[in-house]
Amino acid sequence: MDIVIIGTGNTATILGRKLNAAGHRIIQIFGRDAKAASELAYELNTESTNYWSVVNRNAHVYLLAVSDIAIEEVAKELKLPYKVVVHTAGAVSKEILKESSNHYGVLYPLQSLKKESSYLPETPILIDASDNDTLMILEILGKSISDTISLANDAQRLKLHLAAVFCNNFVNHMYVLIEEYCQKEGLDFQLLLPLIQETAQRIQTIPPAKSQTGPAKRRDTATIEKHLALMESYPDLKSIYQLLTKSIQQHN
Amino acid sequence: MDIVIIGTGNTATILGRKLNAAGHRIIQIFGRDAKAASELAYELNTESTNYWSVVNRNAHVYLLAVSDIAIEEVAKELKLPYKVVVHTAGAVSKEILKESSNHYGVLYPLQSLKKESSYLPETPILIDASDNDTLMILEILGKSISDTISLANDAQRLKLHLAAVFCNNFVNHMYVLIEEYCQKEGLDFQLLLPLIQETAQRIQTIPPAKSQTGPAKRRDTATIEKHLALMESYPDLKSIYQLLTKSIQQHN
């Protein structure tokens, strides 16, 4: 398919690379930041613009990979009644695009995408559309770049987006706090990397409830007390420790 | 080296397999549960007992891989003044073993070990000992089963054990809660597995602070409000969401 990508960030870049690799033609990149747009266009071997008036009108699909709050503004600028216009956001309704086209939808990559990545991570794609024709086009497009395509309406997509916040944002924040703690205590954070890897690896085949271990689950009060004493100068760590310990114990 | 393993659980089993694979002789397994002891002995091609009186006195090293609360009891039973006696616990002082031998120490695997695993995960080993001779023996033993050996005294080991609780127990508990949420909401938890994998993969090369994304970090109040509304019937999820969102925002 011929595709115009609106946006130059992580999602635009990674989806652009995947679409390119799948043999689609990225016919233009639009970016408010002309430099970022031309850089991405150079990488994807296409042209770029930062003027709405010269956005190419001949693509099959217009992929809006911009920040959540910018989607509405872009939809107002882009009037493309017979084109497929889709956004890539987890927590934004597809209806935000209805003024832009009568063929609109969502192609949401359920993955943490970073343009600095040296590889293209496996990325489930959740799709939704205003009509069956558009849905079929998005299914074809999605299947060309992912082994896992799933239908999800606005409500289901928002729920999975919430789940993703826990599995990525919150998990990563715990790593941030623990890396800081290790630095301050003179401990080598690198020692924890195999444990982090194994925790994620195991869940690929074993349900998490079967893998739960640790002092909270064992109700090992002596160890919990020792841990709490270590966190006097780390109020964030301590609050999270107390809340999660309580939550684990209520689940047993 | 010739080793007696005291214990039959996850740590005893995985360390036994690693020691076996490294060419050491496991000369006996002791377990209070005779059946579990003979099963592990069968797997490791050695003998077993559940009587203290017949514990083999001719090993070089006695590895106590029992629950934290059982270590003291075992140390009372095992009087082996000229043998190396070590425990494998993160949150227990090495001094608990001083009545058992004058050569005692700790060999703590900083990893989540499950005997059901079909593979032997990479496992940093933290060592500590009562004296330099014992330390040298533990270093040799540790290096035979791990690429990463690190000295850590009681205080450092306890701090790393706390860090491990966050990186494994708490992270896994979030997966437990999210899997339940997905089941109740009719969502496919499997869709989140690539995201979980990528979150752990990325930290192997990129510091977690550089990977932080999401509505909390962006201070995207609209999305946060939508998420909170979804969690009315999930008080555990909601409390964790609120606390971690606050913590992420205080870190920006």
CATH class annotation of the largest domain in chain A: Alpha Beta
* CATH topology call of the largest domain in chain A: Rossmann fold
Helical element count of chain A? 10
Oligomer kind: homodimer
Can you name the CATH architecture of the largest domain in chain A?
Answer: 3-Layer(aba) Sandwich
Structural features, described:
- 2 copies of one chain form a homodimer.
- Chain A has helices spanning 10-21, 34-43, 71-77, 132-145, 154-185, 193-202, 208-211, 215-218, 221-230, 235-250; strands at 2-6, 25-30, 48-49, 61-64, 84-87, 103-109, 125-129, 149-151.
- With 252 residues, the first copy, chain A, is an alpha/beta fold.
- Chain A has 2 domains: 2-152, NAD(P)-binding Rossmann-like Domain (Rossmann fold); 158-250, N-(1-d-carboxylethyl)-l-norvaline Dehydrogenase, domain 2 (Orthogonal Bundle).
- Chain A has an 8-stranded mixed β-sheet.
- Chain A starts with a strand and ends with a helix.
- The model of chain A has no long low-confidence stretch (mean pLDDT 97).
- At the A-B interface, helix 5, helix 6, helix 7, helix 8 and helix 9 of A face helix 5, helix 6, helix 7, helix 8 and helix 9 of B.
Keywords:
homodimer, 252 residues, alpha/beta, Rossmann fold, N-(1-d-carboxylethyl)-l-norvaline Dehydrogenase, domain 2, 2 domains, eight-stranded mixed beta sheet, 8 strands
